[in-house]
């Protein structure tokens, strides 16, 4: 059977507002039938903190620390918790809910899409597997996360290596289209990450950071060799092709498409109304 051709965009490093605007624009264009499904790789310049759609900034985020580190900041259109985008490969997948290979439930669609990431890790020589909460306590912890930090615990079908989370993803569905995006950590500055959130006191912060070390890990901490961003891109691009049974065809945005994304970035994702409204 002939493989389906999806678009592949490597948009390089961009501002946090541009990154979220491009994901939203691709979702919109795919929903309107203007483009086929898309897989996109990207980075962040400057390094940035993104927060989930439902997070309360005033209660959870230390914006002074974000500013002191010179980080960008944006609210995602997807759920989940805070992510420091620095030494990582970020990906997004845009595909209609009606696609014949997409299961109807969020968790099962998540598993299908994440198969590409799983195979990417395996190509890098890492024995990754899907986290599936087994006990009722583990399932309850997913519903009521105790931390504002995304990598603090694996969710359904999140990817783990040696029991620790190596990729964090979030999903939204709008107008019949799935947008899943996530971070694949190459390296991680834990002290910087934990300084960006608010805690009741220093003791709680120390306890959470200590526990975090047992729950999350970056690729280069567990790999027998240093893996570069380019090598990661190659592995995960190939992983998505194999995992989803597709062919990825490179695509560059037209000047008109770029103009649209830049306007959306400025009007929406750079606005205080969007970023701080909850």
Automatic annotation (TrEMBL):
Its EC number is 2.3.1.181. The active site is at residue 150. It holds the Pfam family LplA-B_cat. The keyword Heme does not apply. SUPFAM superfamilies: Class II aaRS and biotin synthetases (SSF55681). Monomer. In the reaction, the free carboxyl group of octanoic acid is attached via an amide linkage to the epsilon-amino group of a specific lysine residue of lipoyl domains of lipoate-dependent enzymes. The reaction proceeds via an octanoyl-thioester enzyme intermediate. The keyword Transmembrane helix does not apply. The lineage of its organism: Bacteria, Bacillati, Bacillota, Bacilli, Bacillales. Residues 33-248 form the BPL/LPL catalytic domain. InterPro entries: aa-tRNA-synth_II/BPL/LPL (IPR045864), BPL_LPL_catalytic (IPR004143), LipM (IPR024898), Octanoyltrans_LipM/LipL (IPR050664). Catalyzes the transfer of endogenously produced octanoic acid from octanoyl-acyl-carrier-protein onto the lipoyl domain of GcvH, an intermediate carrier during protein lipoylation. This is Octanoyltransferase LipM. GO terms for molecular function: ligase activity; lipoyl(octanoyl) transferase activity. PANTHER family: OCTANOYL-[GCVH]:PROTEIN N-OCTANOYLTRANSFERASE, OCTANOYLTRANSFERASE LIPM-RELATED. Pathway: Protein modification; protein lipoylation via endogenous pathway; protein N(6)-(lipoyl)lysine from octanoyl-[acyl-carrier-protein]. Keywords: Acyltransferase, Ligase, Transferase. It is an enzyme of class 2 (transferase). One of its GO terms (biological process) is lipoate biosynthetic process. Belongs to the octanoyltransferase LipM family. The record marks 165 as: Lowers pKa of active site Cys. It catalyses: octanoyl-[ACP] + L-lysyl-[protein] = N(6)-octanoyl-L-lysyl-[protein] + holo-[ACP] + H(+).
């Amino acid at each position: 059977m002939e493989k389906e051709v999806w678009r592949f965009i490597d948009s390089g490093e961009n501002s946090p507002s541009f990154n979220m605007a491009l994901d939203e624009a691709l979702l919109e264009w795919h929903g309107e039938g203007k483009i086929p499904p898309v897989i996109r790789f990207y980075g962040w310049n400057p390094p940035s903190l993104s927060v989930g759609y439902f997070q309360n900034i005033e209660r959870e985020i230390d914006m002074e620390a974000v500013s002191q580190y010179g980080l960008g900041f944006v609210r995602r259109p997807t759920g989940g918790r805070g992510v420091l985008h620095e030494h990582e490969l970020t990906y997004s997948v845009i595909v209609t809910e009606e696609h014949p290979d997409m299961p109807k439930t969020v968790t099962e669609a998540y598993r299908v899409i994440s198969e590409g990431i799983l195979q990417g890790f395996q190509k890098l020589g890492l024995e990754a597997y899907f986290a599936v909460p087994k006990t009722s306590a583990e399932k309850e912890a997913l519903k009521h996360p105790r931390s504002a930090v995304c990598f603090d615990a694996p969710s359904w079908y999140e990817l783990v290596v040696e029991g620790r989370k190596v990729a964090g993803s979030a999903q939204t569905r709008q107008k019949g289209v799935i947008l899943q995006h996530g971070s694949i950590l190459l390296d991680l500055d834990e002290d910087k990450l934990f300084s960006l959130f608010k805690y009741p006191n220093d003791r709680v912060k120390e306890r959470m950071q200590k526990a975090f070390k047992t729950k999350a890990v970056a690729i280069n901490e567990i790999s027998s060799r240093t893996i570069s961003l380019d090598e990661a891109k190659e592995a995960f691009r190939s992983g998505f092709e194999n995992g989803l049974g597709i062919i990825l065809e490179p695509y560059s945005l037209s000047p008109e498409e770029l103009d649209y994304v830049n306007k959306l970035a400025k009007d929406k994702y750079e606005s205080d109304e969007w970023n701080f409204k909850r």
